[in-house]
Amino acid sequence: MARPKFKRIRTLFMFMLAIAFAWALQRWADSEETIVVDGRQAAVIDGDSFKIGTDEFRIYGIDAPEYRQICNDAANEPWACGKTARGGLDMLMKGKEFNCDLYVRDQFGRAVVSCADEKGLDLGAAMVTQGLAISGDNFDDVIYADEERLAEKAKRGIWQGSFDKPANWRAAHPR
């Protein structure tokens, strides 16, 4: 007779454990904050960051040329890839509203976000696809690896010639 009682207690314990796990999982999933960003209010800083008022945002998963960075085109002529990347992000954001998922704050206090508009346009994917940013940052190196391969193969943007990776350029040109 003791065995059926033990089975019931064990079953009840497993059921309670499953409920606790589901509750914890749901709390973790809900912890990611979503911020609504109006592109008309955004001041683009460079190809992977923008500002709204005093709040600064950095796009998760990409690294774009710095504003003052110069790249070389297919003819080995210099071109302002940093300014072009900034203009590209500005055009993508202009007049649109984005839902941005906050991942973390970086060492500069910026909100690191992944943003998509109502049609599903992902800002990071679009910048990498256009060749105006590379996949990777301090958080995730491969999130947009497929888009990067396509841009490189098509020789779009920075892939048309030669360039220093933005992190290397920043190291060589400290503020």
Characterization of this structure:
This is Thermonuclease family protein. With 175 residues, the protein is an alpha+beta fold. It has a single domain, classed as OB fold (Dihydrolipoamide Acetyltransferase, E2P) (Beta Barrel). It contains 5 helices and 10 strands, in the order H-E-E-E-E-E-E-E-H-E-E-H-E-H-H. The chain has a 6-stranded mixed beta sheet. The protein has a two-stranded antiparallel sheet with strand order 5-10. It is elongated, with a radius of gyration of 22 Å. The N and C termini lie far apart (77 Å). The relative contact order is 0.17. About 7% of the residues have low confidence.
Question: Would you summarize the structure shown here?
Answer:
The protein is α+β, with helices and mostly antiparallel strands. The protein contains five helices and ten strands; from the N terminus they run H-E-E-E-E-E-E-E-H-E-E-H-E-H-H. The chain has a single domain, classed as OB fold (Dihydrolipoamide Acetyltransferase, E2P) (Beta Barrel).
